[in-house]
Amino acid sequence: MFLKNKTSVMRARFAIIVFCLVMGCKTIAAEQVGLIHVNGAIGPATATYISRSIDTAAAQGDQCLIIQLDTPGGLLDSTKEIVEKLFSDTLPTVVYVAPSGANAASAGTFITMAANVAAMAPHTSIGAAHPVSIGGNPVSNEEPKTDDTMKKKLENYASSYIETIANKRQRNNEWAKSAVRESASITAEEALKLKVIDVIASDIPDLLKQIDGRSIDKTILHTANARVVKIPMDAREKVFQILWRPEVMFVLMLIAIYGIIGEMSNPGAILPGVVGAIALVLALYMSAILPINVAGVALIVLAIALFIIDAFAPTHGVLTVGGVISFFLGSLMLFTRASGLQLSLGVIIPATVVTALFFLFVVGAGLKAQLLPPKVGRERMLGQTVTTASPVNQHGGNVFLDGELWRAVSQTPIEQNSLAIITEIKELTLHIKPKL
After folding, report:
1. CA dist 176 to 183, 199, 291, 306, 339, Å?
2. Which residues have a Cβ under 8 Å from the Cβ of 275 and sit 6 or more positions away?
3. Cβ–Cβ under 8 Å, residues 306 and 321
4. Gap between the Cα atoms of 116 and 169, Å rounded
């Protein structure tokens, strides 16, 4: 009896040990956090990536999702989409502005303040969230009153929007409004003092230790020893992220210009026209997403017109110089100041030189070739000088043309071996007149 009881106790202890080990393994397995890196301007691809990553991290049972952020800003629509996702999802999110030297400007300010935990690395900055920097329209000198009204509306909207975000996350709403109205920008150390962010962490392990045990919507984070799992972009997001760049749209626009005008100046080539048409459709699609400046487009169109006109007008290159200047300035102004999307001089200068050379030599030569007199066919024969092989009158005669004997008629009699000019061709008969 004693042995049976002892055996039962040992079995019970063994079962408890196994149970504890299993539960301990599950606990260890659950201590995992997702990590994504968002660098560059905020756009549709970024919004899709963040939204999918939150869903993926939730499905994996991650403790939270860390969004390591370094951005000059982005589009307002994409920013709103990200903020709405951060608010609506139950998975805790941590926006970490890093590494040192990184910046959460403009749209990055909205996103950082919308996270459950806002963190920054030392020597980083946040702010400068004026609405012009998150998708506003360029200033118009023609309608200053309308523009001022629109700017005021955008400023008021952005100010109230970021105040709502700050209030929801219990952060400094006064500074948040100043970031919009006054483009205020502060360092990580100042942001912590002003209660704009929650944590300053030197790296990811330090961040995980500092947020360990933090309660978020009744969920306690266990991150001190959590395993960090990166969630990469999928193929579609990578392609879209690559395409969603001002340089790509600029190149597509140039290909469209070269292809379509190349086809027009050299009819029948087909390939340039097809490539140009495809590039034009893609460029138009991207122009609906990227913040395009109408003034920049107008200057580029003016440059193209000047290049074409100079191919015919005897301006000794004056229009070409004007076209180069117009194209260069148009390229600089092609994108609004929104979201920090600007073309670098390393792209603009080579593009300007190549475009000028393209119109000077390729298009210019093609257009001039179309204006040259025909070298074959009936049109070429009109106005040519021929020699009569026999007397020619209104009843007929013969002339030599390119070593061939042709029948000819003339209202004025012409003697044999005389020079005459072809005035008309009817069927196979040349109408000529004496050459004076």
Report:
1. 10, 17, 24, 48, 18
2. 255, 259
3. no
4. 7
pLDDT at position 196 is: 96
Asked if CATH classification 3.90.226.10 holds for the domain at 31-234, the reply, yes or no, is yes
E strand map for 1-145: 32-39, 65-70, 93-97, 103-105, 117-120, 125-127
Compute CA 255 distance to the chain's CA centroid, rounded to the nearest angstrom.
15
Average pLDDT along the chain, 436 residues, taken 10 residues at a time: 52 57 48 93 90 95 96 87 94 96 93 96 91 44 52 85 95 94 93 96 96 91 94 87 79 87 72 87 78 85 82 69 88 70 81 82 58 57 83 88 84 88 84 86
The pLDDT value recorded for residue 147 is 59
Q: Where are the domains of the chain?
A: 31-234, 245-371, 378-434
Phi, psi of 336 (to 5 degrees): -65, 170
The residues, ordered by sequence, that sit 6+ positions from 113 with a Cβ below 8 Å of its Cβ are 162, 165, 166, 169, 171, 176, 196
Q: Output the pLDDT for position 42.
A: 87
Non-local CB neighbours of 77 within 8 Å, separated by 6+ positions: 135
User: 398: part of which helix (H) or strand (E)?
Assistant: strand 397-401
The closest of 162, 173, 183 to 337, measured between CA atoms, is: 183
Beta bridge mates, 349: none
Six-digit token pair at 136? 């506003």
Q: In CATH, what class is 378-434?
A: mainly beta
Q: For residue 59, what pLDDT is reported?
A: 94
- pLDDT confidence of residue 423: 87
Question: Which SS3 state, helix, strand or coil, does residue 309 take?
Answer: helix
